[in-house]
Amino acid sequence: MADRGSRTGRRRWPKRLALSLLALVLVVAAYGTGLYFWAGSRVRTTDAFTEYESRPGQGKGTDWLLVGSDSRSSLTPEQRKELHVGNDQGLNTDTIMVLHYGDSGPSLVSIPRDSYVAIPGHGKGKINSAYALGGAPLLTQTVEQATGLRVDHYAEVNFLGFVDVVDALGGVSICVPEGGLRDEKSGADFDAGCQDMDGVQALRYVRARYSDPQGDLGRVKRQQQLVSAVAKKAVSLSVLLPPWNLIPFLSASLDALTVDKDTGVGALAHMGIEMEGLSSGSGATTTVPVASEPEIAGVGDVVEWDQVKADRLFEALRNDTPIPTSAAN
């Protein structure tokens, strides 16, 4: 009888395992569906695009315009002091990046905020001033006209939102180059070496430029470094699996982000996956090639692109082909 019972038990275990797996799938599906609809209800949108006669045609792959706003309007005096962002009431963009992905893999291209380009209806000026002059639609149009790329999606994050996202991740690991980084204006005070940074420290790290011999271009490299660190941490099992870690991160991210009206949770999730690919080394990270950094009367110090190399870079993105070495900065 014992053998018969054992045989019966052995016959039943595949069925029990199948039922257990089915139950697990149903729980995960319900959890994921609930999160999807919850996240969808939290997405904040804005008018980010405008139609105009000379707008570039659709290229291959997908292009995002990623923007870091330096708005201080939502910050208290205490927060402005802690974040070392001052009291400037202007509204420019501290960070401008184009994320491209398609068959050729993800590419993240930083556009220096002082890039001297044509701003539709306003002559030439620093590209970051387009946001102050006409908000997201004018900035998007300016980037499209300067690069020849048609932007598919727009995402914007502000100072405080950025800090909250990094804190919700439990901080990120950043490797500070030899010599360390100290900048009185941004509050950066870091020794060389890999270290964990919370949101405030990360913001101070990426905003430093006055003590950096490379100025704004040095800050661009740190921005790229931080974006990769955030993406890598965001898709780690320690964040994705436990709901007590995942939900606070999603909540902070959704509170921090403003996207175009056609961007939903699915597109944001796809973008996050592609960003993680950059941190794992499967894509390319670069900056628009620079030819010179002259001072323009009435404008100040600006960045002028190496137009030949820049054209090669943007052509590769339009055609969804790998960025050629001759186009890298």
Task: Characterise the protein shown here.
This protein folds into 2 domains: 1-42; 48-327, LCP protein (Aminopeptidase), CATH 3.40.630.190. A hairpin with a 4-residue loop joins strand 9 (181-183) and strand 10. The N and C termini lie far apart (78 Å). It is α+β, with helices and mostly antiparallel strands and 329 residues long. A 7-stranded mixed beta sheet has the order 1-12-7-2-3-4-13, sandwiched between helices. Strands 5-6 form a two-stranded antiparallel ribbon. Strands 8-11 form a two-stranded antiparallel sheet. Mean pLDDT is 82; it is low at 4-8 and 24-30. Helices cover 46% and strands 21% of the residues.
What's the short story on this structure?
The protein is α+β, with helices and mostly antiparallel strands and 329 residues long. The protein has helices spanning 2-42, 77-83, 129-147, 159-168, 199-207, 216-234, 237-240, 243-256, 265-279, 307-318; strands spanning 45-46, 62-69, 93-101, 107-110, 116-118, 124-126, 153-158, 172-176, 181-183, 188-190, 193-197, 257-260, 284-287, 290-292, 295-296, 300-301, 304-305. β3 and β4 (107-110) form a beta hairpin.
